Structures are given as structure tokens and as C-alpha cells.
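Section handout 9: paired folding examples.
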Amino acid sequence: MSAWIATRNHLIVPNRNLIDLTLKRRTQVSRSVVITSGATAEHVATSDPVDYEFSVSTDTHYLALHDLVLSAGSMRVNGEKRVQCRDLRQTLTFLPAGTSVDGWCKPIDRSQSFTALYIDPMSVPETVRCLKSWSHPKVHFQSPTLLQTASRLSEVVQGSLPFKELLVDALSQLAIAELALFQSGPTRSDGPDRKLGLNELQRIERYLLENVTHNIGLDDMAGVVGMSKFHFIRCYRAATGRTPYRSLLDLRCDLALRELGAGKCPGDAAALAGFDGAAQMARTLRSARGIAVRDVKAKATRS
């Protein structure tokens, strides 16, 4: 019997259900797979993306690193409220075994790919399985540490290194530990309030610039410097005189004004600056800067 058995919504490997995409029409998809005793890793890519729907469940733990950009899409986990999907580059998704997912996607015309790790529940240490937080799905989140491990896993699956199975097993166990730490939240004492150092502020600024098109939360920013979000707010304000949210808002306003001044249409400028549409960008620019989008466009036209 072939190792791969195609069904409508799944690709099945012995003892594992691999989440696959149900495409509305045929497209060219490349797939690299590494199978070990405790996990399966795969990289899926296409240069000719098509619209697709999916409705799947899995009997393994699922961790994915996305390189996807959509014009529209949504995803629902375990029948709960739908999550909107747009720019998913450098984001991660974790679905514990037994999770059901459905949704739809309209990819933009660019190369699209993801790397997924399917973890056998029995390969997860008991100390992790006992954590209540381990069973919580988390969709399109960011973790610098876990991102580094997932990126390394992607390189291994796509590459031609020897001992790929050993590397995938090792990276799988590392990902489990990092994911457990992330799901559990900060474990060390934050200590007394202090001003963040210059290097820490530069790391936060770089993180915001690199991820401005994503939905950045306080937990994400605090994680860059290893603090709880409440301690981070106090320390950040002590160092800069403003809140982290205000810094993110100012960055998005600056980027939006730059793109509008360069002749971008409001919709494109909003997307590049991380706003949820042109209307939100216009409201924010007016309230935060006292600037109307039409005035910026008129000035750009005269120039």
C-alpha cells in the first residue's frame, strides 16, 4: 500500500492525519515531507495559488509557520467566532489534537507556502501534556523564539542535509518545549520597575517595523524583552514617556503618510501600514495627527 492515501480533506500517513487544502480547481503544488517516529514535517508551496475552502480535523498536534498573503479569508476553530485572515507572513498557528477547523482563503497572486509540524501526542512529555494551557488552540500568533525554530525546521525539510529525520525529531522536541513555555506565559519574576535599555528599545522598534502589517498585541511586544505585559507597559513608559500602543500607532501613522505621499491609494497605504482598511486609517490620521487623507493625496498630486 502506498504511504500516501488521498481523501477529500486529508492526506493520511500511517497513524497520522495531515491537514491538507481542498482546492476549488487544480493547481501546481510542491510538497516536501520528512517522517519520523514522533512527528511528520512538511513544506507545501505553490507559485500559482487559487481560492480554496477547508474543513478538517486532526488526531495530531499541529504547528504551522505561514508565508501566506490573502486578499480575504477567515478561519473558525472548534465552531467559535471566525478569525479574519490577511497578511499571515511570519505568523504561527497551533492546533492541539482533536481540534476542528474550517474556513476559506483568497490568496493574492504571489508564491504562497507553509511549513507544518504534525506531532504525535504520545511523543509529548507528560509534564507538558498535563498543562491546561497546552490544549488551547492559538491562531496566527507571533513568538520570536518559536519562529526561529520553525524557520530552521522549514530549512531542514526543504534542504538536502543528511540525518534529516534526527534533525526533525530534535527540532520537534525543541518546538514542544518552546510552545509550552509560550502557552504558559512568563515564568520568572519581573522584578522591580526599571527603564528599558537602549538595546531593548531598539529590539522592540525593529520588531514593530518588521511586523507592522500583523496584529501586534502587548504580549507580543513584551515577549521581545521577556517581560509580562503589565510590567512591560510600566517599564516602557518609564523609558519613553508614552505607552507601547502609542508608539505602534505613531509608527503606523508615519508609514501611512509616507505611502500616501508616494502616491499609493488609501487601501494599499492602509494595508502597508497595518491598518484594518482605509476607513480605520483615515479616522486614526484625523484623530492622532489632525490630517485628512484627501489633503495628503492632494499634496502628493501637486508634487
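Moving on to protein 2 of 2.
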Amino acid sequence: MQGCIEKKGDVMKRLITVLIVTLVLGIAAGSLFAAGQVDSKASDYDYVVGFNNMWTDLEFFQVVEEGLRKAAEENNIKLLVGYGERDGQKMMSNVDTFVLQGADLILDFNVLSEVGNTMTKELAKKDIPLIAIDGVYEGAYFYGVNNEHVGRTAGTAAAEYIKDTWNGQIDYVVHIYSESAGPAVRKRNSGASDVIIETFPNFNKNNVVWIDAGSHMDPINGRSLATDFLTAHPEAKHVYFQVLTDLPASGVLLAVEESGRSNEAIILSCDASGPALDNLRKGKANSWLGSVAAFPELYGENIIAYALDILGGKNPPKERFTNNVVITHENIDEYYPK
């Protein structure tokens, strides 16, 4: 009798234990769902795509994200979004989260080649393709600007100004760039100086100056770097600044104007984003001649179309490029009417 009572007690204990475990698991699952880590609606979509954006507060990235959200919705794709902020740990953590949520493909817009290379290799082990946006990662697909073409396009515009306004005189080409973006992105700058060297055979190649802005591609750093250069070279009367993106270029313009060197320097940059367009809409042209447009408003639909080709097994080319044109004071209304 005592043995029977003990057995019944054991059974009750086991039942209670099972109930507790079930309750805990249910609460945990509910918490994960609330946190967005488990999505029971994922099966309602044709595909799940993770987008590792760079920043939340810069216009170019906002425009790209808006376009991706719109195109994803139109194509029944669930878009997961995170922000890497060009921080390797955040980038990898976001991708891990996307994978846990069932991502079929990853988009990365952090332009950090070393981390991107590792990310691509890890995803390949899971048969998950990656599209690198404006950055070149080994083994990944690529969507964005043809970096060398962008550089040469900017350099051609600069060369025309140098011939027409400075009578072919050029003292320095100053590149403000980001070494961490990798050698492929560096061509946005080197392509420009290649054109200058080819066009002006008397130009001293040793006067191509490279200034690494690191991850601080912002107006404050651009202003500081340009001010330092201009202060160190008071004798230079014909200086061409080729700047990787528009934000630091706006700081370079401030440095040129504050130094009283507006007639002695020209600036070209890449992206044709808010700061460049605002400057070009001013009533009078200044040292910032223009910016090579990447047309971020078209990124979303083009990238989603590219992703669908990849996921649909169409074996598209590993690279797809944007169209590029220099937006200037003269043609801004043609491409970006008010």
C-alpha cells in the first residue's frame, strides 16, 4: 500500500513538473514573438530578406531603406531591418538575428570590406546569398556604383574646369577617402586622379595626396582635414579636392571659404545626396562644382529585382551597377526638379 502511494506521488510530481516546463516554454515563446525573434507570419511571404543598413539618420541611407521597404511590400517579401553603423560586432549580430528569423538572403550596406568578407563566408556555409551595397565583399553579389567609372566621371568634370578656368594649371589633387571601405571603393578617388594625370602631362604625380578620413565621413572631419591641408600649402593656387561622399565634401567647402581660397580650390564628390543638392540649388555657383549621382531613390526596386533573380535561380551576373552622371549647378533641375 505504501509503495502504491509513493508511486502515485511520483506520478503527481512528474505531472506538475511537465506542466511547469510547458508553462515556462510557452511564456518564453511568447516573449520571443513579442521581441520579433519568432514570426508566425513568415510563411505568408514568398521570401524573407535581411537588410543591414548603415545609419538611421543620414538621408542617402533613409532613401535606400524607404525604397527597399516599398519594393519588398510590392513583391510579397518580408524585410527585416537592422543598423550596423560600420561596427563589425553590430553587423555580425544583426546578420545572426536575420538568419534566426529565416532570412533567405542578406543585404549589407555598411561598406566595411574586412567584416563583409567574413560575413559572406559564414553565410555561404548556410547557403544564404549576400548582396553588398556599394561595397565589395569577396564572394558576394554587388549592387551599386561602378567605382572607377564614378571616379573618372568626376575627374573628367574637374579636368574641363581646370582647362577652361585655370588654363590647365593644377597643383594638387587631394583625395579625402576611407581606407576601411576597401580597395574597390578607393577607385572612386583614384579614377579621378588618373584622368588628371592623363589630361595634364605636366602635372606632378607626386602631388596626388591621400587623406584617410577613417569612419568619420562627416562635415566636421571634412572641414578639419581640408583646413589642415590648405594651411600647410599656402602657395597652392590650383587644388582639386576629390571627396568620397557628400557629407565630408560640405565640410571641405566650409574650409575653402573660411580660408579665403574659393578661387584656388574645386571640389567634386559622390552620391548627389541632400548636402550636395542643397548647395547646387544656391543662386550662385561656388567651389563645390558637383557630385556624381548614384540615384538612391532607384536602389530599392533595383535591389529587390536583383534579389528575386538570385533567389529564383536565374544566375544573374555578380555585379549590377547604377547609372552615373555629375549633377551640377547647370543640370540639377533636369535630374532633380524642384
